[in-house]
Amino acid sequence: MTVAHDLTGYLQALPNVDLRVPLTFAHLDSRAIATPSEILERLRDRLLGLPRMVGGNSAAVLLLLYPRDGEMMVLMTRRASWLRNHPREVSFPGGAVEPGETLADAALRETFEEVGIHRSNIKLLGLLGSGAVRGSGRSFSGIVGYCETPPITTMNADEVEAVLEVPLGLVYTPDYFCEFWYNRSFGWGLFHFFVMVPDIIWGASARMLVELLALLE
C-alpha cells in the first residue's frame, strides 16, 4: 500500500519533480535502537577503516554521535537560508576536502568551522560509506565520530541557521518514508525522508542516516 505525504509548509522547499511514487517503508526494526554503549559496540565492529588521502571532486561530512538522557543523538544543522547551494537543508557538518587533507581532517575542520566543536573532543569511529550528491555530482563520504558527553556548540551564523539534535529513535516512527522520484535531469531515484517538524531530513543526508541505521540492525 502506498501513502501520500504532504511536504508543503516545511521550512525547506523541495525541488519540482515530474512524477512521485510514494512508498511505505517499514523494514527497519525498532529493536535495533539500543543503549548508547551497545550502539557504539556495534559500530566499532561494522564501520570501515579511515582512508588516508583522497583527491578529486570530493567532500566529507561528520556524523557526530553522543548520548543524552540514555538515548543516542546525532548532530545535524540547518543550512543558512541565504546560501546559494542547498539553502535551509538539514545536513551533517562537512564540506569540500582541501588539498593534502584526509577525509577525516576535512570533516573535523568543517565541524569546527560550522558548530565550534574542536577535534580534540571527538573520537573517530570509522568510515560509513560514500555516494554522490544529485545535481552537483560531487562525491562525499561520511565519517562517524563520538563525543562521550553532549558537545557544547558555537554556531557559525554565516553558514548555519540552527544546530539540531536528532534522536536515532526518531527514524523508527511513522514519519519515516520514501518515494521514487522521476525528473528529466536525473531520471528515477529513491529518496528517503525523515519528518522532523518544522524540518525535513532528505537527500544525501537521509541516505547517510539510513546507512548508519542499517549497521545497527
Could you characterize the architecture of this molecule?
- The chain is an alpha+beta fold and 217 residues long.
- The chain has a single domain (30-171, 202-216), classed as Nucleoside Triphosphate Pyrophosphohydrolase, CATH 3.90.79.10.
- Helices cover 18% and strands 36% of the residues.
- The chain has helices at residues 36-46, 103-115, 203-216; strands at residues 19-23, 58-68, 71-79, 90-91, 94-96, 123-132, 139-146, 160-167, 176-183, 187-196, 199-202.
- Strands 2, 3, 4, 5, 6, 7 and 8 form a seven-stranded mixed sheet that branches.
- Pfam families: NUDIX.
Topology:
Blueprint: E1 19-23, H1 36-46, E2 58-68, E3 71-79, E4 90-91, E5 94-96, H2 103-115, E6 123-132, E7 139-146, E8 160-167, E9 176-183, E10 187-196, E11 199-202, H3 203-216
Parallel strand pairs: 2-7
Antiparallel strand pairs: 1-9, 2-3, 2-5, 3-4, 3-8, 6-7, 9-10, 10-11
Q: Kindly report how far apart the N and C termini lie.
A: 24 Å
Biggest pleated sheet: 7 strands, mixed
- The CATH topology turns out to be Nucleoside Triphosphate Pyrophosphohydrolase
Q: What is the N-to-C order of secondary-structure elements (H for helix, E for strand)?
A: EHEEEEHEEEEEEH
**CATH level-1 class:** Alpha Beta
Number of strands: 11
CATH architecture: Alpha-Beta Complex
Rg over CA atoms: 17 Å
Number of helices: 3
> Structural class given helices, strands, pairing?
alpha+beta
What is the CATH homology-level superfamily? Nucleoside Triphosphate Pyrophosphohydrolase
Unreliable residue runs: none
**For the residues shown, what is the average pLDDT?**
85
Work out the strand percent: 35-45%
Helix proportion? 10-25%
Protein name: Putative nudix hydrolase NudL
Cofactor: Mg(2+); Mn(2+)
Family: Belongs to the Nudix hydrolase family.
GO molecular function: coenzyme A diphosphatase activity; metal ion binding
